[in-house]
Amino acid sequence: MLDSPRITRAVHFRRPRPPSTGIPMDKLKIRGGARLRGEVAVSGAKNAALPILAASLLTADEFIVDNVPQLQDVATTLKLLRQMGVAAERDGGTVRLKADDLSNTEAPYEMVKTMRASILVLGPLVARFGTARVSLPGGCAIGARPVDQHIKGLELLGARIRIEGGFVVAEAKRLKGTRIVTDMVTVTGTENLMMAAALAEGETIIENAAREPEVVDLADALNAMGARISGAGTASIAVQGVERLHGTRHRVMPDRIETGTFLTAVAAAGGEAVLRGAAPHTLDAVLDKLKEAGADLRAEGDLLSIRMDRRPRAVSLRTAPYPAFPTDMQAQFMALDCVADGVARITETIFENRFMHVLELQRLGANIAIEGNTAVVHGVDRLAGAPVMATDLRASACLVVAALAADGETLVDRIYHLDRGYEKMESKLAALGAQVERVK
Ligand code: EPZ
Fold first, then answer.
1. Residue 155: helix, strand or coil by DSSP?
2. What lines the ligand 1 site, CB under 6 Å?
3. Could you report the per-residue pLDDT of 338-369, keeping only the tens digit for each?
């Protein structure tokens, strides 16, 4: 049972079992309490790179992608594409792909279960090859995360889809453009349908579309391949289908969640930092909340600088689809509110189980009560380091932020979650003067 009297009701979170797949169980040892100071280069966006790499399936020509981050999820995507027969060569931040003839159009369960974004091959496979067999992703730590909207949209485009043995099996002669209204805003759902529509016959309109910058980056890459997409970044995307797409070279946008994570770490630990290669206009909601917490922020081109010389003020927030505050920054911001002056209410509206970091933050001395989908955070003067466990990608980032603000030593376990979405995290933190060590 929970050791904190402060929980207003018994909260039963499923603690994920350790992976049996031999994933390294590295830990991060962090000695916190010191101000941060230095410079960090922002990497390419994970959530733009994954759909853009999947878009390689839409053409037989060579497709070159630059600024691809070195992440576990990118490695998984390349492995998935290669096992289909896509030629994929990585050289630093550049990946060269060629999907001229595939040996199969399958996404097997053992890959999909480690990365839900594998579903992003479904649309391109059906659109270009007329057939696909993609494992259903199953749930994940933060929620059920079904893919019913992806399936609904593809059926509206004319694909015949059945669920067979845990797989989505899709067949289509040639997809036919139509109007699609998704039941809720879905980022990868919008991306899958946009990629499928690019090669459909006629016009497709996607209403209630996700407006995330990563959707826009994908649309830019597709248009560079000869697609005819307009309205990306708005809730209504129009796609004029074309016969074929050609190769191109595209540079992935900067990662706005990595940017927000490092800014929040400086705001929580205190200090100053410059982030290079950022896209400040893609995280306005996060910058506004950091300013409200008392951070001094300046944006000049692709430079974002932050200075925090005071204890943060408590800031409440409510996650929602872009351009509102991103759910992928909710956990990191909660770590900031844990050491802030005042009481903050953090409401999560996107996923049904994205508070697992609360239990771990309480081990560091945080004072948090959960009321439904709202966490009430009473800021404390200081957190105290302790052994904690990462449960999902952004929860692990949250624990790193909290550990940097905490006095003493924190050992963050299961940081394979962190390695999925953050490139060279410990060396970037070390560049900010943090005392961080990876322990095998
Ligand atoms: C994308 O996931 C991101 N991943 C997530 O980032 C992010 O948290 C999420 O969007 C929300 O912004 C990638 O882009 C690879 P959704 P996605 O479809 O597309 C429900 C990270 O940390 N839904 O926008 O899977 C769903 O359950 C990851 O980098 C359906 O019910 O999220 C959720 O409640 C975590 N049926 C809501 O919609 C569907 O068919 C939004 O999900 C699709 C979604």
1. helix
2. 46-47, 50, 116-117, 143-150, 184, 186-189, 327-328, 350-351, 393-394, 421
3. 999 999 999 999 999 899 999 999 999 999 99
